[in-house]
Design a protein that fits this description.
This protein is mainly α. The chain folds into five domains: about 100 residues, Rna Polymerase Sigma Factor, Chain: A (Orthogonal Bundle), CATH 1.10.1740; about 120 residues, no CATH class; about 40 residues, no CATH class; about 50 residues, no CATH class; about 55 residues. Helices cover about 70% and strands about 0% of the residues. It has 19 helices and two strands. The chain has a two-stranded antiparallel sheet with strand order 1-2. A hairpin with a 2-residue loop joins β1 and β2. α1 runs antiparallel to α2, α14 packs antiparallel against α15 and α18 packs antiparallel against α19. The longest helix has 25 residues. The radius of gyration is 24 Å and the shape is elongated. It comes from Actinomadura napierensis. Belongs to the sigma-70 factor family. ECF subfamily. This is Sigma-70 family RNA polymerase sigma factor.
């Protein structure tokens, strides 16, 4: 049997099926049994069976259907063995019929139900993210804990509490009715966006970028775009993530330090991702229903399509941030708009906006931005103090190293 990259052909096929089919299998079993833990256990059993049987039988033409059938039969056997589960067995048999193969035609709907259930507004945001990663993407508790820099037991409890809340609150396993869909869609997209941001700009630790977390967020956004092809904000979010991620390779130097946007080597940006992101954004905007993710994608496109830093259309970016603030007001958006205004109209105009921002106590980028604007104005002693304020708040080591360099430059200039 051929071996590539340390995996046999069959092991590679199972690994690929896991990436593509885990969420589908789990979603189908949750719909069938109503038991989240049983669904995960039976899905794991199906993939274990694949590793045992595919070497002799060969990988099936439709791996998802094979895995779903095996997992479903295992779940039915488990339910039969549990005297207290007879009612669940009766309901499951009515839904699927004990002797019929799984109907894969409804799997996309099951995945959509799973996404919206994981992201119900009644669940805390951290629980939504963890449960989505666990059930839809199949990440282990240990992997999720490492991604968010928390202890594995704490993450396990977070996931358990989310599942318990779904059960105790009677949160239905379904796509919400039309009048609730906009609210719930926003929650789903918020989870994906939060996940990507944590990977793209880590809030703590040595690594400024966690590529695997970015990749998982993009993958999930693609799933959502496939499940909700008529929702322009889903397409806008995917465009935004692709455009942001296209710059990832240039965001660090050889020493692992952060490289500011205007100093990045644009030849290292991913042109294919940029083209894909711009195409998705154009498709979304043609629907005539602009939303916050489409506006942010348009801002990212302005950066990504500029041949040099000097070619960046800062007046357009400032105008887009003004539109974003009208849609989604908040201090972080105001801070980003202030930076764009400073680039378009000069640092004094930006500083006036920065000094009027409230509600960002503890956010190191506020004093860091103020320091950069003061430095550009030649007010080096004030800039140095602002850099010290930012250093006192920054947690991620790459951020701290960048601020330390800027502080030293301001101190030297101040004399």
């Amino acid at each position: 049997m051929a071996v590539a990259g340390g995996l046999t052909d069959i092991e590679g096929a199972v690994a690929a099926a896991y990436r593509e089919e885990w969420g589908r299998v789990v979603a189908t079993l949750i719909r069938m049994t109503g038991d989240w833990d049983l669904a995960e256990e039976c899905a794991q059993e199906a993939f274990a069976r694949a590793l045992e049987r595919w070497p002799d039988e060969g990988a099936p033409r439709r791996p998802g259907a094979w895995l779903t059938t095996v997992a479903r039969n295992h779940a039915l056997n488990r339910l039969r063995r549990g005297a207290a589960e007879r009612e669940k067995l009766r309901e499951a048999s009515v839904l699927t019929g004990p002797d019929e193969p799984a109907d894969t035609g409804g799997i996309p709907d099951d995945r959509l139900r799973l996404v919206f259930t994981c992201c119900h507004p009644a669940l805390p945001m951290q629980g939504r993210v963890a449960l989505t990663l666990r059930t839809l993407l199949g990440l282990t508790t240990a992997e999720i804990a490492r991604a968010f820099l928390v202890a594995e037991p704490a993450m396990a409890q977070r996931i358990v509490r989310a599942k318990r809340k779904i059960r105790q609150a009677g949160i239905p396993y379904r796509v919400p009715p039309p009048h609730l869909l906009p609210e719930r869609t926003a929650s789903v997209l918020g989870v994906v966006y939060l996940l990507f941001n944590e990977g793209y700009a880590a809030t703590a630790g040595e690594d400024p970028v966690r590529a695997d977390l970015c990749a998982e967020a993009i993958r999930l956004a693609r799933v959502l775009a496939g499940l909700m092809p008529d929702e322009p904000e889903v397409r806008g979010l995917l465009a935004l993530l692709l455009l942001q991620d296209s710059r990832r390779a240039a965001r660090q130097d050889a020493a692992g330090d952060l490289v500011p946007l205007d100093e990045q080597d644009r030849a290292r940006w991913d042109g294919a991702q940029i083209a894909d992101g711009v195409r998705l954004l154009d498709e979304a905007l043609r629907r005539g229903e602009p939303g916050p993710y489409q506006v942010q994608a348009a801002i990212a496109a302005c950066h990504a399509t500029a041949a040099t830093a000097a070619d960046t259309d800062w007046p357009q970016i400032a105008a887009l941030y003004g539109r974003l603030e009208a849609m989604n007001p908040g201090p972080v958006v105001r801070l980003n708009r202030a930076v764009a205004v400073a680039m378009a109209d000069g640092p004094q105009a930006g500083l006036a906006l920065v000094d009027a921002i409230d509600g960002l106590d503890g956010y190191h980028l506020l004093p860091a931005t103020r320091a950069d604007l003061l430095r550009r104005l030649g007010r080096f002693a004030e800039a140095a103090q602002a850099y010290r304020d930012a250093l006192a708040l920054a947690r991620a080591e790459p951020d701290r190293r960048l601020l330390t360099r800027r502080l030293a430059e301001a101190d030297r200039a101040a004399g």
